[in-house]
Amino acid sequence: MGLLAKIKKYKWIVKVFFSGSFKDIKKTIQGFRHEKDFYYVKETHVDMKELLKCALCPNMCRFECPSLRVTHKEMYAPATKSRISYHMERKNLDMTDLHTAEVAYMCTNCDGCRNWCPMDISTGDLLTQVRADLINREIYIPGVKEFDARVMEKQTAFEQDTFTQIEDLNVNMENPEVFYYTGCVMAEKKPAAVKANIKILQKAGIRFCMYADERTCCGGPLHTLGLLNSAKYFAEKNIALFNKAGAKIIVTDCPACTNSIRNTYKTLGCKHNYKVYTSVEFYRKLLEEGKIKPEKSVPLSITYHDPCISSRGKMGTIDIENARFIFSLIPDLDFREVYLHGDITQCCGRGGVSHVHHPEISDAIGKQRVAQLKETGAEYIVSACPACEEGFMFNDGDPVLDIGEILAKSLADHA
Amino acid sequence: MKFDVVYKKRVKIDDLNALVTELSEIVGPDWVSTEEADLVAYSKDYQLITNRWIMENKVPGLPHVIVWPENEEEISRILICANRKKIPVVPYGEGSGVVGAAIPVYGGIMLDMKRMTDIIEVNKQNLTVTVQTGANGKWLERQLEQKGFLIGHVPQSFHTSTVGGWIAHRAAGQFSTKYGKIEDIVLSMRVVLPNGEIIDTKLYPRASNGPQIERLFLSSEGTLGIVTQATMIMWPLPEKQQGVSFAFDAIEDSLKATQLILQKQIYPAVVRIYDKQETERHFYNEPQAKNRLMVIFVCEAPISSLVELEISEIRKTCLECNGTDCGKNPVDHWFETRFNVKETSVYMPKGQIADTIEISCMWDDAVHLYHSVINELKKLDGLLLASGHASHFYPNGVCFYFTFSGIVPEGKSPEEFYNSAWDAAMIATLNSGGSISHHHGIGINRARWMRDEHGPVLDLMKKIKHVIDPNNIMNPGKLYDEPERE
């Protein structure tokens, strides 16, 4: 909003302010000056001013909160989580009590709350900051410390990489222009999707590298859990790998990895100048540039689950249309829109690394979303986030396809 | 516990462990809590002064235990237990009530309804939906919209309130002039009485079969029992929706125009009259509304021509009453911002004490009442903002919705300043022939005005309460109490 528009919008406040007596004006100014007294705390990662604003709201976003929807408990409503956190930070509630501390983790970071917030507050972001304070004080709810240790040991979010030894899934061209960064979930659970992505890049004539044998976690899940030191370790490690590879563009097959590399690394003090794309963003670019052309018939009926990170602006851009654009170009594809889609997509349950510390809640959320998607009657659920896809497959059993797999099916086999 | 508890009436429960054990046997141990953080979460509703208390490290009231039942049978057993032990029970939906009705002033059992959200039946022939009362408004809207229906009850708390809360407070929504208030929408209900008895009132479109008992529970604020299920009227989604707005120089003209429209039997879904202060606040982008009052109308119906006819008559009437047609932009702006609730989050940390007060009156008292309340509020030391809009309309009268905000003057506590503003508005309302609440309810805030509102009728209400709940376990401290005035 420009300055003139702001003046117009807030003129009424100035009028109200000057309508008071001298005493009232003086007291009002004092109120503004002493605002900080209501939220100041020493040594915190938390934006306390925003946390208090959220805590004072009547929970206008609660209907969209997946954690609340499956737990049914008031302490897990978004503004209530902020209120409990506010009291923890102000030392009114004991944050070493794990039941109290757990409140900060009862969030899948889906940003459904932010989507409805007139103050543009993400309760999930605030709770992520609270988690960092908990970790800083060595307060771990069950599952978090174990996850940290495991990722630091294995260097990935899963037990092991299944495909890094497979040559076909580790393409490294000379003088690469693109670094194709495979996320941990994709690497472990979706080798077919990785293969499809490789096919698309090859069809487009992109010179790319993967360094799959050196790949590690992006650090995003650790950051989400409040494990900032571990997250920074991976940020530095990945930037070093990108520097070694020499490509200027990074394309990831996971929007959470995109968000980490594009945005989170900077907040950890790890700056870089790489241009980072999700696979969906990059494929649209390739399609518009005519580098790939969907020609083959793909006679499948599909529905699409918008990953919350993409569709709610978490990465700095709102990406709802790109997937639909891609589907619209694929011959014979029967695309069926689910009722809750776009920026009102619902959480898959895997956000906030919830399956690590609250698997029953994560799975309950996932099952609700699968049921919504299946109401479309489509043969396949398709998404563009491996965590969502893995969660749906885990909770449902049916295969879930990545958008890269659908696009790859439509590309001719000949070069 | 490092909090100061504001309402110091918390009852003593001799054997809390035994109570917790009994409740756990009823609902399962996962659905009972005495954890400190959980008790704090349930210590308040959205009575606005409680936001000040958050920042002062205070909690309004603390329950002893929270319980999350799954069905009526469990609720029945909980109430039987509470009755035997004479322990207060406070029903809780989503805590968006603004008069303190869900604050556990005596502690006791906080009974959260959020596990009971099932849609029992959508009857397309009768145009009814039967739903459990823990269902959230927006969630319910989404379920029905997918099937092609709406209820049309859209209070500003729609995103953060339950069907049970609407019934408990006899709520009214933004589209109520067409679709009716909750009492027009609810046809029947299931109630668990304080003695554990579960009753279903009969479903009928209308009947001449004795006093309508279910009407007792509308606006009872959880003091007579717990409504667990309701059958409500629904409608097919409208084919056409159209908005129009007008600017007026005087509130008298805007009220007159609206009165004439309703008395012509035109019922727009939405009608809102904003006074000059609120017009400047909300419609700063509308050049024709400068230093004037903005009035918006939204009409919708399954038949397009009906909407067009209504809009045409509205336009004709407003122009005849000196209104200026401002088109649909102000209506679009209202749709975009109607759920924006951020002022308290932004200004209460800056020391502002604020609240909203809605009342109703007959048409012949309307103009006098509006000016009277605004004038009385403005007389208060420290008060910076007093404004109002009219948000619900009837052929016979109107609801005004006032907002006040100010800074606590020297020598007064925030609570004293807050109560003085409420007193000013309530006295002015009663003196002008108005009713003390249109749709927010009584709770704690207005209980001290119930005698003036009802006179001897209050005694009858208390007798009914005593017959149904002789041990006064259901949400004590609300509605009937008459605390000393400040």
Summarize the structure.
The complex is a heterodimer of chains A (415) and B (486). With 415 residues, chain A is an alpha/beta fold. Chain A has 21 helices and eight strands.
Question: What is the element layout, followed by pairings?
Answer:
The complex is a heterodimer of chains A (415) and B (486).
Chain A: H1 3-19, H2 22-33, H3 48-55, H4 66-71, H5 78-89, H6 98-101, H7 112-115, H8 123-136, H9 144-154, E1 178-181, H10 184-189, H11 191-203, E2 208-209, H12 220-224, H13 228-245, E3 249-252, H14 255-267, E4 275-278, H15 279-288, E5 301-305, H16 308-311, H17 321-329, E6 334-335, H18 354-357, H19 359-374, E7 380-383, H20 386-396, E8 400-402, H21 403-409
Parallel strand pairs in A: 1-2, 1-3, 3-4, 5-6, 5-7, 7-8
Chain B: E1 4-5, H1 16-27, E2 32-33, H2 36-41, H3 49-55, E3 58-59, E4 65-67, H4 72-85, E5 89-92, E6 109-112, E7 119-123, E8 128-132, H5 137-147, E9 149-150, H6 163-168, H7 176-179, H8 182-185, E10 186-192, E11 198-200, H9 214-217, E12 226-233, E13 235-236, E14 240-248, H10 251-263, E15 270-274, H11 276-282, E16 293-301, H12 304-320, E17 324-327, H13 329-337, H14 343-347, E18 352-362, H15 363-378, E19 383-393, E20 397-407, H16 414-431, H17 450-454, H18 457-468
Parallel strand pairs in B: 1-3, 4-6, 5-6
Antiparallel strand pairs in B: 2-4, 7-8, 8-12, 9-13, 10-11, 10-12, 14-16, 14-17, 15-16, 15-19, 18-20, 19-20
Helix pairs in contact in B: 1-4, 10-12, 15-16
CATH class identity of the largest domain in chain B: Alpha Beta
CATH overall fold name of the largest domain in chain A: Rossmann fold
Strand content of chain A: 5-15%
Oligomer: heterodimer
Task: Let me know the number of strands of chain B.
Answer: 20
Q: Which pair of chains forms the biggest interface, and how many residues does each contribute?
A: A-B, 58 and 59 residues
